[in-house]
Amino acid sequence: MSKEPQSFENHVRVVPGFHYVAYGLVFAALVLSVTLLVRDFSLEHVALLLLSVGAALALVYARLFPLGVQDRLIRLEERLRLERLLPEDLRPRIEDLTTRQLIGLRFASDEEVVELTRRVLDDGITDRKAIKAMVKSWRADYERI
User: Fold this and answer.
1) What distance in Å separates the CA atoms of residue 27 and residue 32, rounded to the nearest whole number?
2) What is the domain extent for residue 99?
3) Domain count, the chain
4) How far is 91 from 82, CA to CA, in rounded Å?
5) Residue 144, domain member (yes or no)
6) Could you please report the per-residue DSSP string of 24-63?
7) Can you tell me the mean pLDDT for 108-136?
8) Model pLDDT, residue 3
């Protein structure tokens, strides 16, 4: 958990061992395997390149798959929250919100989510980063992946 309160400026989570070390090692292996293959074409170097590409793909998908599940969970949580908080005139429009919009809205406090949702829908704002930047009263999420 972060020591300072979470905000738009600091809400992105970076795990150094994953984002820097693991990605760096796989990238280095890719560069090395391509270099070896170019310098000396051999079956072993082709195999090393294939292994490096496989490791890179595995690492990327190891990140993307849980993020996809997390996005689906956020979509469900936010739809349930909006069903509880939105006035009657906005409730039928919950289904109009995209996953990206819901991800942006999740950081809005209960007190401001109604007006922000109305603005997002009426103005057609689809960029989740832009929606997050509009949040005035930040609702922290310290448990995301």
Assistant:
1) 9
2) 16-134
3) 1
4) 7
5) no
6) HHHHHHHHHHHHHHHHS--HHHHHHHHHHHHHHHHHHHHH
7) 97
8) 65
